[in-house]
Amino acid sequence: INDEWSAAVNDARTRYTDFDAKVINNPSLPATQDMVDATMATDNPADVAYHLGTHPDEARAISALPPIQQAIAIGRIEAKLSIPHSNKRTSAPAPVNKVRGGVSTGNINPEDMTPEQYDEWRFKGGGT
């Protein structure tokens, strides 16, 4: 486990320049032994640890939970971090502009308009 953690930390240091400051050398990071154990049991322990280091309020809230709830919370973080993020742009065409309603200034007689239609027609310059 220690070898896996060391490898994960070395990898994380290449991706997160502030990894040591936020996680390893952060004495104010609230973490119980149960949180550490649950984090070490994940597939990406360094990423989970970094998440906790960059979200100290969340880490503090988790540390106040009962041990089983701490493990569940760590599992949720791992699941959230495991979702692949796609930066792929779609090749689909842009959405079609919505058809907007309004009063036609053409064939409608102002006397046949509702008050709202008449006000809109006048506002748009109808009758001038």
Q: Outline of this structure?
A:
The protein is mostly helical and 128 residues long. It has 7 helices and no strands.
Describe the structure.
It is a single chain. With 128 residues, this protein is an all-alpha fold. It has 7 helices and no strands. Helix 1 packs across helix 4 and helix 3 packs parallel to helix 6. The model has no long low-confidence stretch (mean pLDDT 84).
Key features?
128 residues; mainly alpha
Unreliably modeled segments: none
Cα radius of gyration in angstroms: 29 Å
- What is the terminal-to-terminal distance? 83 Å
The helix content is: 55-70%
Total of helices = 7
Mean pLDDT: 84
List the helices and strands and how they pair.
Layout: H1 2-15, H2 19-24, H3 33-40, H4 45-54, H5 56-63, H6 67-82, H7 115-123
Helix pairs in contact: 1-4, 3-6, 4-6
